[in-house]
Design brief:
With 224 residues, the protein is of the alpha/beta class. The protein contains 5 helices and 7 strands.
């Protein structure tokens, strides 16, 4: 009888442990890799809307507030936070920059240096290197961590539309992309992982969403 009770007790413990393991697995945090087919189609070029695998941030080359070249090698094997703004913006940009500063100031522990921020101007005609430098200093930005980028307008807009997928694409074949009449504006902040893949979009004007961004960065840095 005692032997039977012992067997039943062992079975009960085994079932309990298995249930706890299943529950833990079900509740385990995940952060999906996002491809064009997972993003609002309004923000995706019609040519790649059905692309569901393999989307990665491609080559780029811009200049930061210290006149240094920042290209794809800068974000290699790093977590990158990306946004688009312009210095004289009176509406969402100051709010976004203040929220992104929270990420800049956050200490992510041993891998803190593996987190970088890329803020791209959408008005390069006005936002020169010196203007960006003054703006960066206003927010206490360390250029080794937070780059305010300028460059050719067409290249900046191509990155926004074709790579980061943060603003609506314009299907009109006669429209001059990146031309004088073209102007983009978005509150979208993008999370890029160590393999240059999109892992999340966040409203840069929302303190709650930037708090979630910080949690998601920690997940990418330290999740097994």
């Amino acid at each position: 009888m005692k032997k039977l009770l012992l067997i039943l007790l062992i079975l009960a413990l085994a079932i309990l442990i298995a249930s706890l393991m299943i529950s833990k697995a079900q509740n385990k945090k995940t952060l999906p890799v996002l491809n064009p087919c997972n993003v609002n189609p309004i923000l995706v070029d019609s040519a790649i809307q059905r692309k569901c695998t393999g989307h990665k941030i491609g080559n780029f080359s811009f200049v930061n507030q210290d006149s240094n070249i920042v290209n794809q090698s800068y974000i290699e094997n790093k977590i990158a936070i990306v946004d688009f703004f312009y210095v004289s913006c009176p509406s969402i940009c100051p709010v976004m920059t203040s929220q992104i500063k929270r990420v800049h100031d956050y200490n992510f522990g041993p891998s803190n240096d593996d987190v970088v921020l890329l803020s791209h101007t959408v008005w390069p005609e006005m936002d020169s290197v010196s203007v960006l430098n003054e703006y960066a200093n206003r927010y206490g930005a360390k250029s080794t961590r937070w780059s305010f980028l300028t460059g050719e307008k067409k290249e900046l807009y191509t990155m926004a539309r074709k790579q980061y997928l943060v603003v609506p694409d314009i299907a009109d074949q006669n429209f001059n992309h990146g031309g004088e009449a073209d102007f983009i504006h978005t509150e979208n902040v993008v999370l890029i992982d160590r393999k240059a893949r999109i892992r999340g979009y966040y409203d840069g004007t929302s303190a709650k969403e930037i708090s979630q961004l910080i949690e998601d960065i920690k997940f990418l840095l330290y999740a097994n």
